[in-house]
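Figure 2 data, in text form.
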Amino acid sequence: MNYRHAFHAGNFADVLKHAVLCRILVYLRQKPAAFRVLDTHAGAGRFDLAGDEATRTGEWRAGIGRLLSASLAPPAAELLAPYLDIVRQANAGQANDERVGGSEPLRVYPGSPLIAQALLRPQDRLVGCELEPSAVTALGRHLGGDRRAKAVEIDGWMALGAYLPPPERRGVVLIDPPFEKPDEFGRLTEGLVAAHRKWPGGSYMLWYPIKDYRTTDAFAARLRQLGIAKLLRVELASAPVSPDDALSASGLVVVNPPFTLEGELAVLLPALRDALAPDGRGSLRLDWLAREK
């Protein structure tokens, strides 16, 4: 499949990915030492929900649009607050007739580099990598000259070798490829092996679409064989999975997750499932592919 950010910005898969990213960054902020964020397939960083691509699919309405209009109970509401506050702030002052939840304007959606930027402190750093020239130009513009963040025109897989290990001892690497090539799962595995060898102490988020569970379960089986001590799998479906239908499920494998993340996701995932699949057809999975004893 071809998963281009602009067509799918703010959909259910983005909601899962960015909610988890925010929980990891909130955890990293608890200690004063600096951290690094490396986003290997960063895209343009900011997406117009009224633009041609997002309008063509309208996927954001069943994703971030649905979540913003949902009635979230604590503690899920508190855990999602950093993420949703960033989305609201990105839309502050936007002129748009589109209203979510009766009162909230929603015109733009911040991609992962802008979400990470919003949670950086003065000592933290972000590198957003993107190969497509117009996208990397747009990303640099959207980062707004922030000295803590930079956009780099580079292939995301090469970035794992070029920017790891970082000077900081802590941080997270988001690997979010577009799945344009047939063996992207193989590249994910190979990329993780190479990156983890260079920076075994970093956290990694590996995103993947789910078109059939045989493919993604085979991917999980390969990861189990790598000998990496801590691998947490997170999957969310807004509807039953069918290879012939539109994408309705996605997952993340989090390497070296914060010790708080499993408990937070046990609260967050049911809330996200209920908000994004109010018809009751959603499902979730949260388990360990490998867990340090």
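Caption note: Residues 5-290 form a domain with the Rossmann fold fold (CATH 3.40.50.150).
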